[in-house]
Design brief:
It is a single chain. The protein has about 180 residues and is mainly α. The protein folds into two domains: about 1-30, no CATH class; about 50-180. Helix content is about 55%, strand content about 5%. It has helices spanning about 5-10, 40, 50-60, 65-75, 75-80, 85, 90-105, 115-125, 130-135, 140-155, 165-180; strands at about 15-20, 20-25. The longest helix is centred in the middle third of the chain and has 18 residues, at about 90-105. The radius of gyration is 16 Å and the shape is globular. The two termini are about 25 Å apart.
């Protein structure tokens, strides 16, 4: 069953289909993957010694719902943001809405600090991708790049920041350039 049909069957009035993609209002999280990723979606090895970063990402986010993952990121973003870089493409595609919500809802309140810079690099590690679920996110990634870059313009005049607007803008501009043309 396609995700849009599944949500409609559940009676979610906010869900509407646009082709095979479910479109929901801003602030609502939805992923192209219905079931939560397994440890195999985070790492391709059975040994934590062979992939400590993938297993660290699993320990941080493995088995969590969107809301629980979002709360985990909010609790300590400076310690959790890199986990998105090291999780496998399937897990990344599942948890991308967490990044998306965090960037739109939380980062503007923290004035787009260095976490915005690393999140751009986290996403860039998964682009381009052979994983269809990641490719399905490209338009959303482009929209997120536009959001960040537009938001940064309004902060460029501030002098009370400890990070470089230019560095954050460069990271999101580079990410946007990595997205393959449709």
């Amino acid at each position: 069953m396609r995700l849009g049909a599944h949500l409609s069957k559940l009676g979610d009035p906010r869900a509407r289909r646009a082709g095979s993609v479910v479109v929901r209002p801003r602030g609502c999280m939805v992923s192209a993957m219905v079931s939560r990723p397994t440890v195999e979606d985070f790492t391709v090895t059975d040994s934590p010694e062979d992939d400590p970063d993938g297993f660290s990402a699993w320990k941080s986010f493995g088995g969590l719902s969107f809301e629980a993952a979002y709360q985990r990121l909010q609790e300590l973003p400076e310690a959790r943001h890199e986990d998105f870089m090291w999780m496998g493409d399937r897990a990344f595609a599942f948890y991308f809405p967490v990044i998306e919500r965090y960037v739109r809802d939380d980062l503007p309140n923290s004035e787009f600090d260095g976490i915005a810079w690393i999140l751009a690099h986290d996403i860039a590690m998964h682009v381009p991708s052979d994983e269809p679920r990641v490719r399905a996110l490209y338009l959303r990634v482009l929209d997120l790049c536009t959001f960040v870059l537009d938001s940064l313009r309004s902060l460029q005049e501030r002098e009370d920041r400890s990070w470089s607007v230019d560095d954050v803008a460069a990271a999101w501009t580079e990410l946007r350039a990595k997205i393959p043309s449709p």
